[in-house]
């Protein structure tokens, strides 16, 4: 049950496991000239030799880089001073003018639409999402036209031999910068908090955009310019460029993170956590850079992918729930946090399913990035003999099964939780709730679904990793059969509980009496027992098999009867009308009337020596008869006192018409023939 309720973490766990596996494999496989060793100590020695070899190569590259950079600069200067160089520069400028002209022509028509979007008053999250998507589409269309115009114009020129590489390198750098800026500006929205999808401090949004663009530039230089330097016979210069870009990128991200945390710390008045979570970001940045130094780019890329996927998964809930957010967009936006808004949406079905699919998609993209980093084509993953690729392939299957299981679990759990939330909290010591049956069965249905999904998930994961589950199923059947024979009482309790619940014998909050003379209010129902709270306080846990016949005192309605002893001389009809009038006044009461299903009535029940017994009766909702009876006693006592009718003393009184008169205001009763004869004899 608990495992299924956290199935969404399986996506992240699968991705983290694959990255950790590949990371260790990459560190251990770092190239170095030392002889192979065996065992755990040998693996550590192997890793240390690889790190020393890597650092030695970087040191050599730094020593030889100045001379190679000077040679590259002289080559480029000489090439640009030639006729081919001038022609290439002229063609490049013309191409850039064509691309910029095409985009300028587009914005002469699209700028008004962009201004309308920026000035539109937003009243809902759905509208904000649509406007942000439309704004992104406008900016992306301009960028696409710019790229298409440049790509098309390149074919109209005959470029000098050997200069195409420089042209394409510069254009790729420009394209990378613009794409990075477009994505960062859309997600972080500096100066436009109402369009912001990420839960980030608005004071740091602009700084983060600049950092993303700078890191994109450094990565593009490392990935695009580096191979060009290697082609120009300057491998140490290329390696030095990698070192500089990695160091500058790490420092830029680290500085932005520290400034962002400092800005939050100055304005955050909450109590600091016991564990300094803020230190994790700088530590991870330093770890990625350190791993790049000692193990190479592939290992650092794996760790960086782990780091990035973790951050995305951490903020993914607020991003996905942005569309369903119920923010007040008419007020100031800078004080709002998307994480707080997303917290209230976890009980809704559509956002929960969308979040599960988004988490799975992020993990799949992360694993795809890992495969690209390792250099395994997607078409060869299934047939690859690489153990890392096979492990990743199995984890993809696990995440897929976890996604299906989690979506099914969400589809069952969310409607149940939402329905229970609508029914409200259950007061087991209050009046029986009309929805008590739902509040009894829905938690048990949720528990049964959770156990079922957990078992199916475990069996499916084992089958995905190649474990034959047929013996497990057969063994489970035999074990269940043996358990059934050896635990007859347990089976009897389970079967009895199923029939008790199916026949709606009792519900949570109802007062019942069992055949074993145990009574109390139903507080909790499990698969095997029912918890009964006695009116004196003790809590009884009764197995279903021991309940026997059940008397439910809280179902539908309850009739309460009580007696009133009055003197024998009172007039029966007058007493009946008096009690009826009391019952009518009780039904007119706004509180008591809602609890009474039938009015209070009275009739002569029997006559004892010197006493008339009147039986009073009323019908009420179950559980309310006690307070109604108390109020009826109080009002009847008051009415009898006003009518001058005392309660019977329980002794015989002989009344003589000629010598004795009844009490003042009492109802006079004519003596019977027997009474008159007795008086004559006396």
From TrEMBL:
Ranges where the Mechanosensitive ion channel MscS domain occurs: 490-554
Positions of transmembrane segments: 89-107, 136-157, 163-184, 205-229, 241-258, 301-324, 357-379, 391-412, 447-466, 472-491
Signal peptide extent: 1-30
Membrane-topology annotation of the record: Multi-pass membrane protein
Pfam family, one: MS_channel_2nd
InterPro entries noted in UniProt: LSM_dom_sf, MS_channel_1st, MscS_beta-dom_sf, MscS_channel_2nd, MscS_channel_TM-2, YbiO_bact
Domain Mechanosensitive ion channel transmembrane helices 2/3 residues, every copy: 456-488
SUPFAM superfamilies, sorted: Mechanosensitive channel protein MscS (YggB), transmembrane region, Sm-like ribonucleoproteins
Compartment(s) where it occurs, according to its Swiss-Prot or TrEMBL record: Cell membrane
Keywords: Cell membrane, Membrane, Signal, Transmembrane, Transmembrane helix
Similarity-based family: Belongs to the MscS (TC 1.A.23) family.
PANTHER family: MODERATE CONDUCTANCE MECHANOSENSITIVE CHANNEL YBIO
Name this polypeptide is given: Small-conductance mechanosensitive channel
């Amino acid at each position: 049950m608990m495992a299924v309720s956290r199935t969404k973490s399986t996506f992240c766990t699968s991705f983290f496991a694959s990255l950790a596996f590949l990371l260790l494999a990459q560190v251990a496989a770092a190239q170095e000239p030392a002889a192979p060793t065996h065992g755990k100590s040998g693996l550590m020695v192997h890793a240390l030799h690889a790190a020393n070899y890597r650092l030695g190569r970087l040191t050599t590259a730094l020593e030889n880089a100045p001379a190679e950079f000077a040679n590259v600069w002289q080559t480029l200067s000489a090439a640009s001073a030639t006729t081919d160089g001038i022609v290439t520069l002229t063609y490049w400028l013309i191409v850039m003018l064509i691309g910029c002209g095409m985009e300028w022509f587009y914005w002469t028509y699209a700028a008004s639409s962009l201004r309308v979007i920026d000035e539109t008053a937003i009243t809902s999250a759905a509208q904000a999402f649509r406007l942000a998507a439309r704004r992104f589409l406008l900016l992306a269309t301009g960028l696409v036209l710019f790229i298409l115009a440049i790509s098309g114009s390149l074919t109209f020129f005959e470029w000098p031999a050997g200069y195409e590489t420089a042209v394409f390198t510069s254009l790729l750098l420009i394209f990378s910068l613009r794409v990075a800026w477009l994505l960062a500006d859309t997600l972080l929205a500096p100066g436009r908090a109402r369009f912001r999808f990420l839960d980030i401090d608005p004071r740091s949004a602009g700084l983060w955009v600049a950092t993303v663009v700078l890191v994109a530039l450094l990565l593009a230089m490392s990935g695009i310019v580096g191979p060009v330097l290697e082609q120009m016979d300057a491998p140490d210069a290329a390696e030095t460029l990698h070192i500089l870009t990695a160091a500058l990128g790490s420092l830029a991200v680290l500085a932005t993170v520290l400034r962002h945390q400092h800005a939050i710390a100055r304005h955050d008045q909450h109590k600091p956590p016991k564990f300094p979570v803020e230190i994790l970001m700088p530590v991870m940045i330093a770890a990625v850079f350190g791993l790049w130094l000692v193990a190479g780019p592939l290992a650092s890329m794996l760790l960086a992918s782990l780091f990035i996927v973790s951050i995305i998964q951490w903020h993914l809930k607020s991003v996905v729930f942005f569309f369903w957010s119920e923010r007040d967009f008419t007020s100031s936006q800078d004080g709002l946090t998307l994480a707080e808004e997303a917290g209230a949406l976890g009980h809704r079905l559509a956002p929960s399913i969308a979040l599960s699919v988004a988490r799975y998609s992020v993990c799949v993209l992360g694993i795809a990035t890992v495969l690209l980093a390792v250099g395994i084509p997607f078409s060869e993953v299934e047939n690859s003999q690489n153990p890392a690729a096979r492990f990743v392939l199995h984890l993809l299957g696990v995440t897929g099964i976890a996604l299906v299981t989690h979506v099914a679990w969400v589809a069952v759990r969310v409607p149940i939780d939402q329905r229970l939330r609508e029914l409200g909290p259950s007061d087991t010591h209050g009046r029986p709730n009309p929805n008590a049956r739902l509040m009894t069965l829905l938690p048990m249905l949720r528990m049964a679904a959770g156990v079922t999904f957990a078992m199916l998930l475990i069996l499916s994961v084992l089958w995905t990793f190649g474990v034959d589950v047929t013996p497990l199923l057969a063994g489970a059947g035999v074990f269940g059969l043996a358990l059934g024979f050896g635990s007859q009482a347990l089976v009897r309790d389970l079967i009895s509980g199923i029939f008790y619940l199916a026949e709606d014998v009792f519900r949570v909050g109802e007062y019942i009496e069992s055949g074993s003379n145990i009574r109390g209010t139903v507080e909790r129902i499990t698969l095997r027992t029912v918890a009964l709270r006695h009116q004196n306080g003790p809590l009884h846990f009764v197995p279903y098999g021991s309940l026997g016949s059940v008397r439910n005192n809280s179902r539908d309605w309850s009739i309460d009867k009580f007696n009133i002893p009055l003197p024998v001389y009172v007039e029966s009809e007058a007493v009946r009308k008096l009690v009826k009038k009391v019952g009518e006044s009780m039904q007119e009461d706004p509180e008591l009337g809602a609890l009474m299903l039938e009015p209070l009535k009275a009739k002569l029940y029997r006559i004892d020596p010197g006493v008339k017994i009147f039986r009073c009766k009323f019908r009420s909702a179950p559980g309310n008869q006690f307070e109604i009876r108390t109020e009826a006693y109080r009002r009847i006592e008051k009415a009898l006192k006003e009518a001058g009718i005392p309660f019977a003393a329980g002794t015989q009184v002989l009344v003589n018409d000629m010598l004795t008169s009844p009490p003042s205001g009492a109802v006079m009763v004519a003596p019977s023939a027997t009474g008159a004869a007795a008086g004559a004899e006396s």
